[in-house]
From TrEMBL:
One of its GO terms (molecular function) is nucleic acid binding. This is Histone-lysine N-methyltransferase SETMAR. It comes from the Eukaryota. InterPro entries: RNaseH_sf, Transposase-MT_Hybrid, Transposase_1. Gene3D superfamilies: Ribonuclease H-like superfamily/Ribonuclease H.
């Protein structure tokens, strides 16, 4: 409900449009740039199995693009999201 003066013009109602589809992307970087960009297909969600597949792809990308990186150590910064904390992911 809108309060207005009786002589004010009628309020316009705008058509509602669907918003753009959301895209989930996981990006792995180092000091030289992007190592891997993983875009989740529409309709899929991240679970432990999907996240482990992404980590396997990261391992292959690092071997191919930055071979010395695995010897010098890799640090992944995770939050407490369920796929990050799953037993399979930690293994």
């Amino acid at each position: 409900m809108t309060w207005k003066h009786p002589s004010s013009p009628a309020t316009k109602k705008f058509k509602v449009q669907q918003s753009a589809t959301k895209v989930m992307a996981t990006v792995f970087l180092d000091s030289r740039g992007m190592i891997l960009l993983d875009i989740l297909p529409k309709g899929e969600s991240v679970n432990a199995d999907r996240y482990c597949e992404t980590l396997d792809r990261l391992r292959l990308a690092v071997r191919r693009k930055r071979p010395g990186l695995l010897r010098s150590g890799v640090v992944l910064q995770h939050d407490n999201a369920t796929p990050h904390m799953a037993k399979r992911t930690k293994e």
